[in-house]
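Minutes, project check-in
Item: structure for the 265-residue chain
Input as provided by the requester:
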Amino acid sequence: MRLKQFPIVILLSLFHFLSYSQPHTKLWNGKKCAVVLTYDDALNIHLDKVIPALNAFNFKGTFYLIGSSPAVTNRIPEWRKAAAQGHELGNHTLNHPCDGTLPGRDWVGNENDLTRYTVARAVNEIRINNAFLKAIDGKNERTFAYPCGDFTIHDTLYYNQLKNDFVGARGVASGFLPAKNVDLTNISAFIEDGTTAAQMIAQVEEAEKANSFIVFLFHGVGGEHPMNISLEEHQKLLEYLKKREKDIWVTTMVEVAKYIRQSQQ
């Protein structure tokens, strides 16, 4: 009797394992976790080095563009081509205003000091940048990234007036959350500055263990910005992600935000 029951016990155990473990390991578009590669401040090196590197692996990145940046206004056809290839052109405001009263913000000029803005001005400039970006890529859906991670103007959350303009907004606080707990007005991100590929890969593996996702926040990749990682380390990360493509969903911020929004309904 015991011998006859033994296979049944095994089959029941296997059934329960598959029933309960599978949803937790395939939560992200049928994969174990999601990775979003985001690049801030509209740098020439993003067009010259980063996008070709992503294209070589058939990966899509999110590039948060400052509308007034010469690297945008002087290279519109190249950004349009990048969008046509599937890369997201995100909104990083028209003039990148930051709170100049905070420590280490001596570089913030009066004209770009967020504390000198009104909420109406901030909202207007962001919407102007949205119109500009649509003129480049023709798209209505995109995400926003807070310059310097600053959320408020005189204690007012200015993004509250922009929730219907974007699919989501990327912040700067790191963390691994399940999709149902993600605040789409402040999507977590990991700032990379001088980081090695090994360190970034470890972060991806932590996201995978947590059944979560990770948003990488890059600025310079091989130079052009004080916050920088090397091209070589960036390349190694891409190579790792390509090898793990079966388990890792590498996509844009707008696609992950849409996926999270749908999962929360």
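Outcome recorded: The radius of gyration is 21 Å.
No further action items on this chain.
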